[in-house]
Amino acid sequence: LINVRKNLFEITPYAPGKPISDVKREFGLTDVTKLASNENPLGPSKRAQQAILEALQEVNRYPDGGAVLLKEALSDAVGIPTQQILIGNGSDDLIKLTSETFLNPGDEIVVPSPSFSQYWFGAKLMDAKTVAVPLTSNFEYDLDAMLAAVTTKTKILFLCSPNNPTGTYIREEALQRFLDLVPSHVLVILDEAYNEYVTEADYAQGIDFLKRGYNVLVMRTFSKMYGLAGLRLGYVFGPMEVLDAINRAREPFNANMLAQVGAVAALTDLEHVEASRIQNRAGFDQLQSGLSKLGYTVVPSQGNFLIFDTGLDDRALFDALLREGVIVRGGTALGIPGYLRVSIGLAEENERFLGAFEKVVSSIG
Ligand code: PMP
Questions:
Q1: What is the pLDDT of residue 264?
Q2: Could you tell me which residue ranges the Aminotransferase class I/classII large domain spans (predicted)?
């Protein structure tokens, strides 16, 4: 143990949403609703499932380490050359790879706060420093403050839009201004894990800026709208030289065969995507109006989740909801004490959450 790098002891392993099986066992429940990990409640596309079943017969073979077919499918879908695409074992993998590629001990990254914790993890792993810049009081980006946080040591600046856990997003004009002002030694990474859920027209699409020559990485995933979280597949669009560098740190077979095959099929299943988007908007409206009737104000969200201020101890609420068989995320662990983050589920799941929440609030408040 004596030779373990010191910074590793400052890392607490990621605490994901509690698994359904744990809650069933712990509370002796048979029916548990999980609205904790921003998954697609409609499940994976049928087309993806079929393709995965067929590919099962070939898992004695290694996957295509270069993910050629998937890159071609993504290239066709968005109009970016395959050399500007890299595939990861989830976007978690790509965040880690990018950190390993660019960060030396003592370097800095700039991140919004609250936001996704893996940016901090990548930096910590490399012994780099995370400079966290708070969102405004209504959870909007303070891009000027993020610019002001950049120093000569800043290597990477992360933006997450829509932002997890707040659901707020960056507008086109704001990103344009920001990218024009950010110093050229800083690599800007736009994490667009929830991109497919966005319905607002002024949302800044990172890929448009990449196409116009900006030095920006755009990360996306098949874990959310495409419903393939369990298979682990993320991808990133970026300038060729930057991806060439990251590719050198990549494991040879970091994206597995079933994930690649499932992703190619899922990309063609536009009906599933559209159904998921519609279901998500309806679910948001349902949760918002249900919570509003109980006296709570939801933060407008462009993701497949929402947050709201409970005015109570979120940890106590989280525990009480677990006993009712409903798993959500407590705000304390996400950097927003008192808030709950609820993933948008099917109508009956949202209803169950609303009922359970109304019940437990009276016992805690
Ligand atoms: N970025 C954000 C903003 C996320 O919320 C998540 C999932 N929690 C990820 C990246 C990681 O996604 P993946 O499953 O592709 O690793």
A1: 98
A2: 30-356
Determine the distance separating the centroid of ligand 1 and the alpha carbon of 259, expressed in angstroms: 16
Segment 191-200, tens digit of pLDDT: 999 999 999 9
Return the domain boundaries, the chain.
6-43+271-364, 46-268
**338 in Cβ contact with 296 (< 8 Å):** no
- Ligand 1 centre distance from Cα of residue 193 (Å): 6
CATH architecture type of domain 6-43+271-364: Alpha-Beta Complex (3.90)
CA distance 348 to 210: 40
Residues 6+ positions from 6 with CB-CB distance below 8 Å: none
Which pLDDT does position 1 carry in this prediction?
A: 65
Question: Is-contact 156 126, C-beta < 8 A?
Answer: no
CB within 6 Å of ligand 1 — which residues?
A: 38, 90-92, 116, 160, 164, 191, 193, 221, 223, 229, 234
Strand pairing category for 129-134 and 85-88: unpaired
Write down the pTM of the prediction. 0.96
Q: What is the DSSP string of 226-294?
A: T--GGG--EEEE--HHHHHHHHTTS-TT-S-HHHHHHHHHHHH-HHHHHHHHHHHHHHHHHHHHHHHHT
Residues of the chain predicted below pLDDT 50: none
Q: Distance, CA 218 to ligand 1 centroid (Å)?
A: 13
Q: Give residue 172's identity as a one-letter amino acid code.
A: E
Place of tokens 């706060």: 113
* Complex-level ipTM: 0.99
DSSP 203: B
Cα angle 200, 203, 206; round to 5: 145
